[in-house]
Specification:
Helix content is 32%, strand content 21%. The protein is of the alpha/beta class. Helix 8 (218-227) runs parallel beside helix 11 (269-283). The N and C termini lie far apart (47 Å). The structure holds iron/sulfur cluster (SF4). Iron/sulfur cluster binds next to loops.
Amino acid sequence: MAKSQSEGNSQQESFGTAKVYINNAQSILNKATGFIDYYDFTLNPYRGCQYGCSYCYAAAFSPNSKMRQDWGNWVIIKKNAVEILEKELQKWQNKNPDKPASIYMSSVTDPYQPIESKQMLTRSLLETMVKYQPILVIQTRSPLIAKDVDILQQFQRLRINMSIPTGSEQVRKDFEPRTPSISARLKAIETLRYSIPYQKDRDIRFSVTITPLLPTFPEHQIEFIRKLEIVDRVVIQEFHATQTRSLVAGTRQEAETIKQKYSWWYDNERVNYLKFKENLVSLLSDIEIKEGKEGFGFE
Ligand code: SF4
């Protein structure tokens, strides 16, 4: 296949509609900041994300403005990620023999986006991590994660966060048309929950993150919320503020346009958010309900 260059990344091929670049990363564990500063590090196996959600704040961290505009249509594979991770975890262990690193995977990509089915980079990183037993949080909206249950069940401290920002399939199709269906995500988290047997020396937890909460038709709310009984935590959050400056996280303009279709929700956004939250609290009384940053910690 023809090769071309984009900002120092050599294009090797395409995967679906995405251009695929391969690059060497300088580091793979990066200091966690902002809403995930509970953790020592973030880990992003890929750069870019094929899901291309309309509201994704991570687009702000694209290599250049052209790629930012083209968010969702490219992905960079960090070729040397496993090798670097091994070195970085070894270094941490030498310095902190009694304190496992805490890692949030991932902050600006989805570790289980479609290319993972071919590349299996996230899987290889898990194989490395399991030897060091970090405190690990995996954030994804992909049922592909279920393929790694054999490795996931070897972790001692793991939280799996499944992103499901709406209970209405039509809303999902409008705001994030390339992502897996709501039912596929619910099924994946349920499969993981029941496939990983309880053991008293192991702490494996499951969350659904409704972040940001997208419109959910009143007739879907109760049924959706009841399906969340399979997890131990539900996290909600309002929409990020709109931002267009590079390297500043914010909602993309694309989402602002889609929001106009849902004026029945956004004209009273705060009220609708609070009503949804009230439903969560009353219907899921045995489940931890957290808001915003507080919901992203391990504990
Ligand atoms: S899955 Fe996450 S990282 Fe990927 S485009 Fe959607 S919000 Fe952004």
